[in-house]
Amino acid sequence: HVVHLSPASSHPTAGSQGQFPVTQNVTVVEGSTANMTCRVDYNDNTSLQWSNPAQQTLFFGDKKALRDNRIELVRASWKELTISISEVTLSDEGQYTCSLFTMPVKTSKAFLTVLGVPEKPEIIGFSRPAVEGEDVTLTCITSGSKPAADIRWYRNDKEVQGVKEVNATGRSFTVRSTVHLRVNRNDDGAAYTCSVEHITLNSTPHQVTEVLEVHYAPQVEIVHSLIVPQEGQYFKLECVSKGNPLPEPVLWTKDGGELPDVERMIVEGRELIITTLNKTDNGTYRCEASNHIGTNSDEYVLFVYDPNALTPHGPDHALIGGVVAVVVFITLCFIIVLGRYLARHKGTYLTNEAKGAEDAPDADTAIINAEGNHAHAEEKKEYFI
Ligand SMILES: *[C@@H]1O[C@H](CO)[C@@H](O)[C@H](O)[C@H]1NC(C)=O
Ligand SMILES: *[C@@H]1O[C@H](CO)[C@@H](O)[C@H](O)[C@H]1NC(C)=O
Ligand SMILES: CC(=O)N[C@H]1CO[C@H](CO)[C@@H](O)[C@@H]1O
């Protein structure tokens, strides 16, 4: 236990040549030992005495005056009288007096402060398990602290606010802190820790934890292993059910009745396995889970696809279709290009023929004319493009 010493000392006012006792306030933790020291710097062989808050003399010089085994002499001289009080209790607290028997008597007061260590806290008020929707009050209690201890609450290591109440019980304090909550399924398993902090505990608070148990109705969801179930495939439905108490076993039904008695269908715990899917397996599958709080269910509509209907050599057709499209396109392009080429040449020829033939008296002139009219023909050719 740590002894906290208040460094201040008390000095008497009027001095008769510096002959006065000097003491210090002392603070100790209950159960430990307090040393009370009284010093006189200049002393002409005058006796020193320690007395307790009830004005009983403890030691007069080196002579023990009170029968109390816990009080012992540490040092006695003309300049110092030090006594020790072991196993200090809260009732030892008070003002102790050191007297120097001069004429008149000079005294010095020393206050002994005893700190009370808080007891291990306790959480009360939780009658486990709670049912979802119930109001729960957790109260953490610690007694015996002096000064009053501080209580902090943590929910899964995150601090939450409590309502504190302090009551004096004798010389120490009983401290309570309360948290209220209406529990739901998310509170199931939540850990509430009460942490008691006090100067006597340094930085290691007393802690106690209560783990909430909340009962709630099942929550059911069916999870399936295939997105497109096909005939002949292995298929698994899992009934994912939460709830407290854990709903077990779960009940599987098909189309409102019992599961058909086929070897391909196996129920394993919360799983329904169909080893080889068949078109006859389609229908509505239902998983039901119950506990004493309630019942819940989920449904899954199974449609077994025919693998042949689903993929009728689709990829081949697509490929052929693509090739055909490309071939048709190339052919079309070719035809257009060829068509234009033919049309251009045919037009030029016809123009030349026409011009030459119309205006010329003979064939030779016709040719000459035709060449002369070439520019004109070019214009005509433009027309065809
Ligand atoms: C000693 O403690 C008492 C009581 O707590 C206080 O009134 C007094 O001032 C203290 N004296 C010194 C010197 O600190
Ligand atoms: C589906 O079941 C029927 C009758 O039970 C059976 O005749 C058929 O062969 C099965 N189909 C497959 C793909 O197993
Ligand atoms: C939705 C669906 O396809 N239902 C079919 C399930 O299989 C039976 C016969 O096995 C058909 O009659 C249903 O139409």
From TrEMBL:
CDD domains found in the cross-reference section: IgV_1_Necl-3
InterPro entries, per the entry: CD80_C2-set, Ig-like_dom, Ig-like_dom_sf, Ig-like_fold, Ig/MHC_CS, Ig_sub, Ig_sub2, Ig_V-set
Keywords: Disulfide bond, Immunoglobulin domain, Membrane, Repeat, Signal, Transmembrane, Transmembrane helix
Keyword Iron: no
Entry-linked Pfam families: C2-set_2, Ig_3, V-set
Topology in the lipid bilayer: Single-pass type I membrane protein
SUPFAM superfamilies: Immunoglobulin
UniProt keyword annotation of Iron present: no
Localization (cell): Membrane
Transmembrane segments: 318-338
Domain Ig-like: 12-108, 121-213, 218-303
GO terms, biological process: homophilic cell adhesion via plasma membrane adhesion molecules
GO CC terms of this entry: membrane
Family per similarity comment: Belongs to the nectin family.
PANTHER family: CELL ADHESION MOLECULE 2 ISOFORM X1 (PTHR45889:SF7), IG-LIKE DOMAIN-CONTAINING PROTEIN (PTHR45889)
Name used for this protein in its record: Ig-like domain-containing protein
Organism: Pygocentrus nattereri (Red-bellied piranha)
